[in-house]
Every structure is written in structure tokens, then in C-alpha cells.
Amino acid sequence: MKKLKVLALALMCAVFSPSKADEGMWLLQLMQEQNLADRMKAQGLKMDIADIYNPDKLTLKDAVGIFGGGCTGEIISPNGLILTNHHCGYDAIQQHSSVEHDYLTDGFWAKNYEEELPTPGLKFRFVERIIDVTDRVNEDIRKGKIEEAASFGAPYMKKVADETLKKSDLKKAPGISAMALPFYEGNRFYVFFIKTYTDVRMVAAPPSSLGKFGGETDNWMWPRHTCDFSMFRIYADKDGNPADYSKDNVPLQVKKFLPISLKGLQEGDYAMIMGFPGSTSRYLTESEVKLRMDAVNTPRIEVREARQGVLSKEMAASDKVRIQYASKYASSSNYWKNSIGMNKAIVDNKVLETKAEQEERFLNFAKAKQHADYQGVVQQINDYVARVMPLQTQSTYFSEVFRGIEFESAHKAFADLKEALQKNKKKDIEKAIETLKERFAEVHNKDYDHEVDRKVATVLLPLYAEKVPAEALPDFYQTIKEKFNGDYNAYIKALYENTIFANEKNFNDFIANPTVEAIDNDLMVQYSAAKAKTAKALADKLDEARGDINLLHKTYVRGLCEMYTPTPKAPDANFTIRLTYGNVKSYDPKDGVHYKYYTTLKGVMEKEDPNNPEFVVPAKLKELYQAKNYGRYALPNGEMPTCFLTTNDITGGNSGSPVMNGNGELIGCAFDGNWESLSGDINFDNNLQRCIAVDIRYVLFIVEKFGGCKNLIDEMNIIE
């Protein structure tokens, strides 16, 4: 395609006057340019916008960070205490759980620092600084140092980040790293300096009967009564610097933490959320929405439903398996249901029709401007979709199936060992065997059950063969056909019983006498190699089919921003820190149905079902409810609040985000969206889009009255 002209970007997406809408995951560094303060204050913001984000002083931004690998957390005490969701801390809770110490079922409550549990691998990351590098990138393009199509690719972005950090005063600061990312589809670029703490300890978690109350039945639904929170703490060295776990580390004395409000909330009250939304696709065309529905969501639904059917049965039959697979199942089922809801909401909310109308308006706009690139870009994107649709469908089936089957071997390490054996190089043989030992331990980890995985493979391998063209099947399917007469059960039995990695005995027998013949004849080595070969071939075809799609998106987004002048537009989410503002608000999902904006503990008791593990209510909570022993956390009418709704624009990654009032005080913790608006990642609907949050009063009530952790309450700054 014709090379797109590099603009200094007239900031068409950045300097407009505010619009009356709650849509927008706004970049902190552009709030002033986009004149958001007036709109935020009109909706109820009382604090100065400069106290939300200001590169020259401590602000709310400094109390919010990335929890783990994909959630948000906030600091709620001067001693580094983190609040996030229960489902965000679920991996850590599961990691510490066993049949003997089942924190998933019983909860965990540390009454002092000594009882807090180190959690290997868990990190908390703060955004230390944000730097605009748009001019630098555009200058590199103009001078021919980088092709425009490669300017927002990972290698170049890493180079920009590394060079920016190298020139910074923070280049030698402990725990500091840098990442550069494109925004507005490559029309703007920013570098983020990130400070990472690696000693994060588990402090408090309610039992799953509270933290996951409602389970999959209530997931993405309202009304909600889930006490979806957990607490952790950052530890640092004696100087407050990031440090790996040590018994000598101390709780981090933070520079900024959030005060907590018990004043309550009313419909219409201002609410804002700061966090790290993972991914949205608000600038997709109609054809790309169809691509998402048919080539991503539908295959994901089919494969996960099949796998989850196996897991749920096995988890119900064994406490050991239930604990091993609890986090895996929760992660899988979350976006299984999300995909179902998204496809339904796209149809119900007429998203395709809305996109078509936008494209028609855009074409008329482009013709009026006599802008050739704008006039042709949507059709070029449609052509891209036609090329990619079958390949993307195959790719989704492939990733979902073979990610769902965990048993695997290290075929590359086996290849290295084979070469070393053929050359009779003792040191290389020893090195390859050590690598295989490490890989064997990784496969047969504490959260893996070989027989459960075998049952998953028995379901998924035939499913994959049904869903993709014969020529797209990995080579081991030919082995199933020719050597096992098409009998999947026989093949899988051999795979899971007779191969080198199948069990410790087989593995030890092999490494005691490794041979080239054993490697060549091993079904799992063949399976792994064939899978890798197919993955690469599919990735190469997709890369070729995608062509210049990134540049097409860059053109389309720039044109849309111009068309929508003077309405400000936020860039798509990409797991960078954002602010969204809105109000506490009820909604009407359909004719004759009204959902109020909050729920109470009464609803927990109404939903109780002792025969359904999703709706079991702990005896202690029932005692507190019957005694109305809520302390200072009750509503004026004596009821106990549980969850509430706001109009804030959030998505995955915002889980655990602080919900704050107009003074920047914590009133809740965001944990979900509502079923009716699951098309919101693609098209925001201000009438239906709602954020579901757990009320901070419910959190503190559970911590103090249920968990008995008055020690945690005492270290918070609580405003009554």
C-alpha cells in the first residue's frame, strides 16, 4: 500500500473539548490537554485534577499499581498494604493451599507481620514516570531510521525504551525498567518507567464462599453479592528499595496511600477508577467485529466448554484435584462466559449496525475532505479480514486446544541431546539431560494431574480434528490414523503411559541410558515437534495475510479522530495506567426490569443454597447477619451493603482497581462488568455499561468481624 504520510499528529485525538459521556479510559498524561477537568468537576469531582496526576509531585497515581500479571491493586496503608480482588489473588491463595491448609475453602487471616506468607513469583509494579516520545519516533521515521510499518513493533519499541532509560536519572535506580508502547494505533508513543517490587506477601483472603460467592452463575451478572477482595503487602529492604524475598526485608513505607471513606454513596455520586485496563477494540470496523465473533469467540467457547466439562467433573470428585485446578478453571471459565456474553451483546446491542453507520459517515467525511487514504482504508481492512478469517479461526482452535492440554515434552532439548549423543560430546549430553530434568519437573508440577490431563486430551484432540481442515492438522494426526487405526484413545494411552516424560520411572530409565533411537521413537517428542511445526507455519501464514494492517488501522483511527472533532477520544486499552470517571447509577436492562445501584447482605442469605457450592454461606457470616453485628460499616437503615454499580468504563485488567469518590477516597474495589454490556470492549453503550464493585464497607466488615483482623483496620486511614 501507499506509505502513509507521517504527521506530527495534530493531536486530533487529544485536544478536543469535553463531551458528555462516561466512555473513555483516559491517559493520565493527556487529561489536561483534553480538558477533562471541567467535565469531571461537573459530575462531582471535588479534588484538583493535578492531585490525580502530576509528573512533578505525589498524586493518586502513586498509590495504584499492577498486581501480579494482569490485575490492578491499590495501597491502603502507609505500610504497603495492597487491596485487590480475590480472583486476582486466587493464584497466590491456591499456591499456598493444600488439603491440610485449604485457604481456598477456609480463608486466610494474618494477625501480624510474622504470619504473612511470602509468595514466590508475585510482583507489584508502580508507574514511576511517563515520557512522551512521539516526536522522537516520528523523527526516526522521517529520517528513514525505521520503516513506518515497523515503528510500533516490539523490537523498535524496546530500543526506544532502553535508550530513553539510559539517558534518564533513573537508569541505575533499583527495580526500574522501561517499556515503550504505541497509542492511537501508532499515532502517539509513550515510555513508561516501571518500579517493580518482588517480595509481596499474602495477608488476608476470605474463603471462596465469600470471595467467589455466586461462582460462574453470577459471573458478569447483576445483582451481585460477591466479596471479591484479598490483601497482600509489599516488602522491601531496609532502605525501601525493591529486593527479592529475605527474612530481613520490612514492610514498605509508601509515599502515597488511599484514605478510605465510610460516608457511603448515593445514586448520582461521582466515582472514578484508576487502573490498568488490558485490551479494548473500540476502533474496529464492522468486518473486524465479525472476525472477533466468528474466528475468536466462537472457537474459544467451544474448546473451553469441552475442557471445563472434564475439569469440573474431576474437581468435584477430589479435593486434591479441586485445589490443583481451581485457578486454571476460574481463569478459563471467566473468558469462556465473557465470549458468550460478548457475542450475544453484539447482536442485542446492534453493534454491527452501529459500526456500519460509522463507516458510512466516515466515507462521506473522507470524500468531503478529498482524502484518498481515508476513502479507501475501510475497504482495505475488509480485504484483510477476508484473507485472515479462516487462518484466525484455525489459530484460535489451535491455541485453545493445545494450551488446554498441559502434557508436553521439551522437543528442542531432546534434539540437542540427540545431536550430543550422535557426536558423543559428554558435556553437551550432561547439559541437555539437566535441561530435560528441569522441564520434566515443570510439566509434573504440584498443580498438574496426569490422569486429569489425559481425560482433557481425550476430548480435545478429536475436537481439533473436527474443526480445522485436514491439511492444517499437525503430523501426529497421521500417526493416529496410520499406527493407531484412528483410535484416539489408544494413541493417548500410549502418549500418557509409554513416553519418556509420561512418568518418573520412564524418565529415569531413559536418562540412565539415553539413546538416539529412544528419542526418535518417542511419541511425545514427535507430538511436541509436530505441534511446534504447525504453530510456526500457521503464524507465518497469518503474518503474511495481515500485510499492512497496522498502518491501515493507524490511518483509520487518525481519520476517525478528525471526524469526531471536537469530541475527545481515548486510545484503546493496552494495560497501561488509565483513569475513567462516571457516577453511581442504576439501570434498566430490559422492559419492565429495573436494577437498583446497590445490594446488601440480605441478598446473600436469599441466594444461599447449601447444595450448590457456588452459593454456600459460612456459618459465621450467618451468625453476624442474624445478630446484625455490622459495627460502623452498616447503612443508616441498619443493613450491610455488599456491592454497587457505577458507569465507569472498565475492562479486564481493571480487576482490583480502586473506586474513589470526588475527594479521592476509596469507596470500593472494581471486580466485574454487567452481562448486558459485554460488547463494551468493542462499542461502549452509556445506557447499559456498568462497573460492578464490592463496597469498601463490606470488605472492612469481613476483615474485622469475620476475619478478626483488627490489626489491618488499625493501620488504615478511615474517614467516617
UniProtKB/TrEMBL annotation:
Family annotation (InterPro entries): Pep_S46, Peptidase_S1_PA, Peptidase_S1_PA_chymotrypsin
Keyword Kinase: no
Broad EC category: hydrolase
EC number of the protein: 3.4.14.-
Stretches of the chain forming a coiled coil according to its record: 419-446
Signal peptide range: 1-21
Key words of the record: Aminopeptidase, Coiled coil, Hydrolase, Protease, Serine protease, Signal
A GO molecular-function annotation: serine-type aminopeptidase activity
Domain of life of the source: Bacteria
One GO term of the biological process aspect: proteolysis
Family: Belongs to the peptidase S46 family.
Stated role: Catalyzes the removal of dipeptides from the N-terminus of oligopeptides.
Protein's recorded name: Dipeptidyl-peptidase
Taxonomic source organism: Phocaeicola barnesiae
Source taxonomy: Bacteria, Pseudomonadati, Bacteroidota, Bacteroidia, Bacteroidales
